[in-house]
Amino acid sequence: MTTKSRTYPTRIELTFQGKKGWIVLDQIRTVDKVRLIKKLGKIDSKISNQLKSIIKEMLVD
């Protein structure tokens, strides 16, 4: 995530923990679950569906 606003088709705007930001799918990385310390929160199903759709388009089409 970032707080820098860019209107790219691979970025999704959202508010998380009271802060406006963007999920940056054009810089997606893999992280081993062992490195994750704790969950910070959840995203709603609308954002989750947008994420899945964009990732699918990036990798399949």
TrEMBL record:
* InterPro entries per record: PemK-like (IPR003477), Plasmid_toxin/cell-grow_inhib (IPR011067)
Pfam families given for it?
Answer: PemK_toxin (PF02452)
MF annotations from Gene Ontology: DNA binding
Query: What is the name of this protein?
Result: PemK-like protein
Q: What is the source species?
A: Leptospira santarosai str. MOR084
